[in-house]
Design goal:
The protein is α+β, with helices and mostly antiparallel strands and 296 residues long. The chain is built from five helices and 18 strands. Strands 13, 14, 16, 17 and 18 form a five-stranded antiparallel sheet that branches. Strands 1-2-3-4 form a four-stranded mixed sheet, covered by helices on one side.
Length: 296
């Protein structure tokens, strides 16, 4: 430690802008400041360096230029940004430091706008060991400009800021998976699945000739096209099969011209993956609703 102090003191006398060295009664050494508060404190203009060992072995290095977002940059004029290696890194996250805290909305749509890449840095493109993985700052800036900054004329990305989007996206996808699994389990447990209904439909219709009826679509789930079997009595003047999203919004309606047992083909088309319901309408009457699942 004494050698380190001596080295820094010698360096201080080598620079005219750091002309004064002070030693306080407490044994603190100051270069460029007459009131050092730590074992070693160096101040030059508005930039400061603090060496402050404690009994726990911690080391504090801080810079402050009047801006609460002051940055310490590890940079060399020839090598560019330096690698920073440590056992672990932590980031302040105490709730008392934050305000206007809000849950993220639709994180998946944000992540859909971000691409992951593999690449080599230009200083050594032929070294296969130099292959790295990440994002492109210019792309991130279009989606999340708050996590992109400019240092030394180059764009940098705070990768930590992407973690909350990943957390919420996984939770959202898990919720969707659980909903789909629940619907699928109900369909598999239903005693009146399509095959059984199709084989017994003619007999079951004998006492229900005047009632409209809709059956479970097949295949289900589906990604491109599915078939829905309907029964429309002959006396029905206007019949429609309508599809709704989980919020109850009507997505589309298909007019049915035929009567009796009818097979209606439904294409996924522009519909996004998810759970939908469908109902058969006829002259003010409606059938019970059924659910279908569209996959990617």
């Amino acid at each position: 430690m004494k050698k380190l102090y001596l080295l820094i003191v010698l360096c201080a006398f080598s620079f005219p802008n750091m002309a004064q060295v002070y030693v306080s009664y407490a044994g603190n050494v100051g270069i460029g400041t007459s009131s050092p508060t730590s074992k070693l404190e160096i101040t030059k203009s508005s930039n400061s360096f603090t060496f402050k060992p404690s009994n726990s072995g911690s080391l504090e290095i801080g810079g402050y230029d009047g801006n609460i977002n002051s940055t310490i940059t590890f940079w060399h004029s020839q090598a560019g940004f330096n690698n920073l290696i440590a056992k672990s890194f932590t980031k302040s996250s105490d709730s008392t430091l934050k305000t206007n805290v809000n849950r993220l909305v639709d994180p998946i749509s944000v992540l859909n706008e971000i691409n992951g890449y593999s690449y080599f840095y230009r200083e050594n493109p032929t070294d296969r060991g130099n292959k790295e993985y990440g994002v492109i700052a210019q792309e991130i800036r279009r989606v999340l400009p708050e996590i992109v900054d400019t240092v030394k004329g180059l764009l940098v990305v705070d990768y930590d800021e992407l973690i909350p989007f990943l957390i919420e996206a996984v939770k959202q996808q898990q919720s969707t998976i659980e909903q789909l699994q629940s619907v699928l389990d109900d369909l598999l447990d239903d005693d009146n699945v399509v095959g059984k209904r199709a084989s017994t439909s003619n007999n079951s219709m004998d006492g229900e000739r005047n009632n409209i009826k809709v059956f479970q679509n097949a295949p289900n789930p589906f990604s491109s096209i599915t078939t829905i079997q309907c029964y429309v009595p002959q006396n029905i003047r206007k019949a429609q099969l309508c599809v709704y999203d989980v919020q109850g919004h009507q997505i589309k309606c298909i007019n049915i011209a035929d009567r009796g047992m009818v097979h209606v083909q439904l294409e996924a088309g522009s519909l996004s993956a998810g759970i939908y319901s469908y109902i058969l309408f006829g002259d003010g009457k409606c059938s019970s609703s059924k659910q279908l699942i569209i996959t990617q």
